[in-house]
Request: fold
Amino acid sequence: MKFRTEVEINESEKKLGIEDCIFSIGSCFASEMHEKFSEGQIQSLSNPFGTVFNPYSILQAVKQVYDAKEYQENDLILANDSYISLDHHSSFDSRFAHITLDKINKNIEEANQFLQNTGFVIITFGTSYIYEFLPQNRLVANCHKIPQKFFEKRFLSHQELTESIGKTIDLLLDICKDDVQILFTVSPVRHTKDGMVENQLSKSKLITAIHESVSGKENCHYLPVYEILMDDLRDYRFYKDDLIHPNSQAVQYVWEKFGNAYFSDEAKVFINENNKIMTALNHKTADDKNPKYQEFLDKINARIVAQQQKVKHKIFS
Reply:
């Protein structure tokens, strides 16, 4: 007798190896996957523009990285005593223009170089809603707590969604490795402030646009992360206290599903050992001069050396 409906991720023909680079962009799931890759000592880069939610803004971020755009002071606005970019998350905001620009341009340069060696891209869309900044008549990625009277909120049309996704694919195919795999997901995080009905409509528009955009493209795939949380883990015990964001147990479940479908056998062993080393490194002691603790550290260091010999990139840095 079955008591739940399991949702599987289709096994990938191309497997992720221990030297592969993974680029992720978009909503919270992109950041969570990046953290998992980083803990496993796989080369990963996430959200060079900070967390972004809709397909149009993600396209703009990818385009600026593709073009290696250098932001200037006239690309910023001064609001709430900070210099901000409406293309970026508020984590880039600063009281000084040169500090904001330095953060932005360093991230773009790093992402441009990283994408040229990337074999896997994970894109997570969170919403179909977008805001237009009325003083400049342009669509923006983040409102930065500027008063709502300066913005107009609306749904992206189906054409805008599919065009944004299609152009994003084209840019990535051109800048990434020839056999790059582009994986699309929809965030299971519900945007309850939009309204429950509106959130469901927003997600459904994203899912429809993704499926239409990736149809017939061998290197583009949809990962049913949204469906795993909505149907497979259909219980509030898999959410944080806010009842909106998946908890660590849910993230780990999705991670294992993804790994079974996409990791090579070598990558599974490599990541598993690195996770064990990371757990050991987090071990605390009251006496770091204790000979037994020093012996413990020597053993951990030997394991790190053995793992480092398997890859060219620096691990446990």
Observations:
- Residues 18 and 267 are 5 Å apart (CA to CA).
- The chain has a mean pLDDT of 95.
- Residues 21-264 form a domain with the Rossmann fold fold (CATH 3.40.50.1110).
- The radius of gyration is 21 Å.
